[in-house]
Amino acid sequence: MDAKTLTYIFVGITFALYIGIAIWSRVGSTKEFYIAGGGVHPVLNGMATAADWMSAASFISMAGLIAFSGYDGSVYLMGWTGGYVLLALLLAPYLRKFGKFTVPDFIGDRYYSDTARLVAVLCLIFISFTYVAGQMRGVGIVFSRFLEVDIDTGVIIGMATVFVYAVLGGMKGITYTQVAQYCVLIFAYTVPAIFISILVTGSPVPQVGLGSEVLDGSGMSVLAKLDSVLTDLGFSAYTEGTRSTIDMFAITFALMVGTAGLPHVIVRFFTVPSVADARRSAGWALVFIALLYTTAPAVGAFARINFIGEVNETGYAETPEWLRNWEEIGLIGWMDKNGDGVIQYRAGAPFKGKPAFDGDERAEHGQRVLINEPTDSNNEIYVDRDIMVLANPEIAGLPDWVIALVAAGSLAAALSTAAGLLLVISASISHDVVKKMLNPNISDKQELLYARIAAASAILVAGYLGINPVGFVAQVVAFAFGLAAASLFPAILMGIFSRSMNKEGAVAGMLTGLIFTFTYIVYYKFIAPELNSADNWLFGISPEGIGMVGMVLNFSVAATVARFTAKIPTEVEELIDNIRVPSGASGGHHH
Fold first, then answer.
1. pTM (predicted TM-score)
2. Which domain range does residue 350 map to?
């Protein structure tokens, strides 16, 4: 069987499994819809958390970013992993003890204010949509390449699947689906990595392979080989960064703190029976996440070595089939600048902007006619970073079933995160806006109906954003993290650890952080992209890292405003003391 047939079979089986699970675990109450009834085993919850956590950005984009930016790409690795640890140790157990389903619920009650609740809902919806757009885009790319439909159709198929299990099964359906998705995605990520590691270095452990010698007789290690090949082609060395230290620090920090404020992961800690179980499942999730995160740098390095070996100085007529497959859907583009029919891969952008294909007219040498003008660099090939993990098995010439497995795994990664996010959006609308603010007297059944309507509407918006994307997957996701870092994280942290933070301070802080970060990113990314360089940035910090400054502003504005406004009521002080004294740490249920 060829790769396409196998892919249809693998994707078909996994989708049938997800939908079967959703039907088996469909819910009848809001408690089951929001937090799966609170009875999930810590190990299973750890798996579900890991699947929720590792989005299309982790599965598809991260290794691609590391492959093309080397050392600079490590910010994603450090930021996302560090953020998870921060969330698991610093926030999750306390929020669990507080016993609220959603972040706005915590913020609204802790700051005794519907304004604070509303600001939190707005931040949360904005962050979640920014993030979910990237997932939908990932789904579209996978479908378009492996099932040979266009990207938009791929997004629509993805929407339909998530719709079934998120709207039917709620958190309960999503949790057990995510356990299945974790198994699919980790298997799909590690199998090709092991194969490729053996091919490149002879070591079956990719993590060890990254530090081993390349089997080409050069006697060089993987990283030394990459450094020498890349510097010969005019790129900066793989192991040296091009970003300033302050910017590296700011981006890592923004990703880390932004992650800790991410709503869809916090909710996972409510699905286990007790606070002690919340801590246990956090530990398990870290183990499950580490499996993929320690493999990613190796996958990135091997992908870049293989890519250069297969493409550079190859006559277009001799190029392997995978290159043409990706060219068909516009994610690889080639232009023969010197007219020799041979592909030159060099530093510099091959085209101004992305290659745009004008119908299907082929010029001589098989290249596509490009609408976009070439630049004066002598690089002739454009590669979309998001394809590296997906193309890796094909580039390394692995068997067809591995290619099919990767397709199923990347869909599992994107869909599991999308489902978690959509649930958070629907819960914040039905629970925090409708029930807590507009109509406190609605019944459980009505609230469940609103939650389902909200989830369905959220899926439509997410699909629209996936079809009309802004920036490539990981960039869009970095945007979401910066906003979470600047708005929600400080409010949650002060809500737990500060007895003096009042509603006026919290609201002023959240708005300041959100508006500042949003304006900065929009200005440099959309209004004046030509000024987007280190010379013009505030303190030399890029839009990806500016969330750190937004967070500092949030804390300082909040502290200043709180000093000059009314003290918090005594019942809220008691509430905070109750969260912090771990009376429920032994596993007892105190609500």
1. 0.77
2. 332-383
